[in-house]
From TrEMBL:
Organism: Candidatus Curtissbacteria bacterium RIFCSPLOWO2_01_FULL_41_18
Record's protein name: YoaR-like putative peptidoglycan binding domain-containing protein
Lineage: Bacteria, Candidatus Curtissiibacteriota
Source species, domain of life: Bacteria
Residues of the YoaR-like putative peptidoglycan binding domain: 87-198, 280-351
Keywords: Membrane, Transmembrane, Transmembrane helix
Transmembrane segments: 20-37
Length: 621
């Protein structure tokens, strides 16, 4: 080998040695780097502006936890028009997750791909890496809190619409609005959380223009005025529901053209839906105000009718012993409103745009009837098929013993059967009104005074029976009016004269069953409504009863109030048991027809003496 070649070979060998030495050094450095940061945060790694490079997992967790705790203690502060609103993160539905944040610091070091991991390690010494916290936002909770907090600073936009005032439809003009810029707020809120910066977030506002103004509402007003002239009558049996004027107006809804659902379209931003509720319009491109029927409101209205119409099917039952009914259920046909068909009929008849439609529309409600069964042969044999007369009275303000006596007296006439041609005698059925029979002491009128006596309140029962017999068209054989007007018998609008007193054994209430079938007396006491109801069941024979309004004459003023000592009341307690009533004479007539024949024509006269208000003054211990 020549000298020249030898020198060249030696130089190459020396260069190779230097290269191998350099490579060894680099390899040792890289290996040292990998070994040094094997379980630590990589160089140039920051969390909340604090360097965490070279920290092990435990040290990193402490730093992250301390920063998160500090941020959560400070919370978030919103500045709104110079006012400060402070919130806890939990109140806003914001939750920062420590474990997931910690995993984020070390996750890049253990990628699924070796090449990716190597690149992350290599660039770490030269590029800063900022770790943001892992967090979640409950948008429902956040939305409610922001809505409630910002509402007082906002001014809602109002589109032009139509209102119904004093039987006239009028346009209400539009009004511009001012709303918080929630998009900018959400962006700043996220930035604050991700940097753990607890500074104030200033809320900005944007002006919101109405979609429709007065000009765009004119066409809708013409439609409303056309519809306002309509009258819809819904019929079923004796019941009628009239939809007109304000009621018909309530069926309408108003919205800008294309906004039937209150917004144009919905976009998805991540997992959160965002409604596009506003578009910018030029002066001449605003949508007109549309008017249409609100089907949800119609459904609600029909449901209210159904609550009145619908009745269950009740089969008649009758059980009695020794000539007295122990259990009776009158037959009741079932009724069920077809709500879907009713809605179709209403929608077919009401036209918003048809100006030539009928002005008055009658709709017979579609009701399915289910016939009740007569489940007892005795009902057919006795003729106890239907209600032929009802009497009602009220006893609000009665003392406990009086209410008890009303219930006891009612039970003694309840379930009584009266044969064809027989006479109903109140005293005969009730018997002596005495303590031996279970009656308690309550206030009665005796010898011109209000005193405690056995059976006070029994006349409430006889009065209600009298009213039932009157309405049933049965002959009244004996009836005596009270000497004084009693306030109980004029409650709920009853006029003076429709009462009947009893005083066993001399003063009785009697009527005759002059029908061809048995009649049944049913009495019901409703303590919640302070109401007594007496029903007479039998077989309707075509009677028609006409009762006149009473003619009230011979008016006389009430005397001065009367105060009476009562040892049953504590001292210092005053209780009113009678109310002042002027004296008067009441006369009313009753005519009962069967077909064209007048079968009963009678007159009922009551002479009421003036009666004073009576107060009981406690003298007891």
């Amino acid at each position: 080998m020549g000298k020249k070649k030898l020198r060249s070979w030696l130089r190459k060998k020396h260069d190779l040695q230097k290269f191998l030495l350099l490579g060894s050094v680099i390899l040792l450095v890289v290996l040292g780097y990998f070994v040094s940061y094997r379980d630590k945060a990589l160089p140039n790694t920051y969390f909340a502006a604090q360097q965490i490079s070279g920290r092990n997992r435990e040290e990193t967790a402490k730093i992250i936890s301390a920063n998160i705790d500090d941020f959560e203690k400070r919370g978030l502060t919103l500045e709104v028009d110079g006012q400060i609103e402070n919130f806890k993160l939990s109140d806003l539905g914001i939750e920062i997750n420590l474990e997931r944040t910690l995993e984020k610091v070390f996750a890049g070091k253990h990628s699924d791909y070796l090449g990716t991991t190597f690149l992350i390690w290599l660039r770490a010494p030269f590029l800063k890496t900022f770790i943001s916290p892992e967090y979640s936002i409950n948008y429902s909770e956040l939305g409610v809190v922001l809505e409630n907090s910002l509402a007082k600073y906002e001014k809602p936009v109002k589109n032009a619409s139509i209102v119904f005032v004093r039987n006239e439809a009028k346009i209400v003009d539009s009004q511009s609005g001012r709303v918080a810029d929630k998009s900018a707020l959400m962006l700043t809120l996220r930035q604050s959380i991700e940097s753990l910066s607890p500074g104030q977030i200033e809320i900005s506002f944007v002006d919101e223009s109405p979609l429709t103004n007065q000009d765009q509402a004119v066409r809708a007003l013409d439609k409303v005025k056309n519809l306002q002239q309509r009258r819809i009558v819904l019929n079923f049996g004796f019941d009628r529901w009239v939809i007109a004027g304000g009621d018909l107006f309530d069926f309408l809804k108003f919205y800008p053209y294309g906004y039937d659902g209150n917004y144009l379209l919905t976009l998805n931003f991540g997992k959160s839906p965002v409604a596009a509720a506003e578009l910018e319009y030029g002066k001449d491109t605003r949508p007109p105000l549309e008017v249409n029927l609100d089907r949800d409101k119609i459904d609600k209205y029909i449901s209210q009718i159904g609550a009145v119409v619908d009745k269950p099917t009740v089969d008649a039952t009758l059980r009695f012993e020794n000539g007295r009914v122990l259990e009776f259920t009158p037959a009741q046909d079932g009724q069920k409103l077809d709500m879907a068909l009713t809605k179709r009929l209403i929608l077919d008849k009401i036209s918003i745009d048809d100006i030539s439609a009928e002005r008055e529309i009658t709709i017979n409600l579609p009701v399915k009837i289910t016939k009740a069964a007569i489940a007892n042969n005795e009902i057919n044999r006795l003729g106890i098929r239907e209600l032929v007369g009802r009497g009602v009275s009220y006893f609000a303000g009665s003392i406990a013993n009086r209410i008890y006596n009303i219930g006891l007296g009612s039970s003694l006439i309840n379930g009584v059967l009266v044969k064809p041609g027989d006479i109903f005698s109140f005293n005969k059925l009730v018997g002596p009104v005495s303590a031996e029979q279970g009656f308690r002491q309550a206030y009665v009128i005796a010898k011109g005074r209000t005193v405690l006596d056995d059976g006070g309140g029994i006349c409430q029962v006889s009065t209600t029976v009298f009213r039932a017999a009157l309405n049933a068209g049965l002959p009244i054989l004996e009836r005596t009016a009270h000497a004084y007007r009693v306030a109980y018998y004029e409650q709920r609008g009853f006029k003076p004269g429709f009462d009947a007193t009893v005083w066993s054994p001399t003063v009785d209430l009697k009527f005759k069953n002059d029908t061809d079938q048995h009649i049944l007396i049913q009495a019901t006491v409703d303590r919640a409504q302070s109401k007594l109801q007496v029903d007479i069941y039998g077989t309707a024979d075509g009677r028609k009863v006409e009762i006149s309004e009473p003619v009230l004459t011979n008016h006389r003023p009430a005397p001065e109030p009367l105060y009476q000592d009562d040892p049953t009341l504590p001292k210092g307690v005053t209780k009113q048991v009678d109310f002042a009533a002027a004296g008067l004479t009441s006369v009313f007539t009753r005519k009962v027809y069967k077909g064209d024949d007048l079968i009963i024509d009678d007159t009922f006269k009551s002479n009421f003496r003036p009666w004073q208000a009576v107060y009981l003054v406690g003298t007891g211990g």
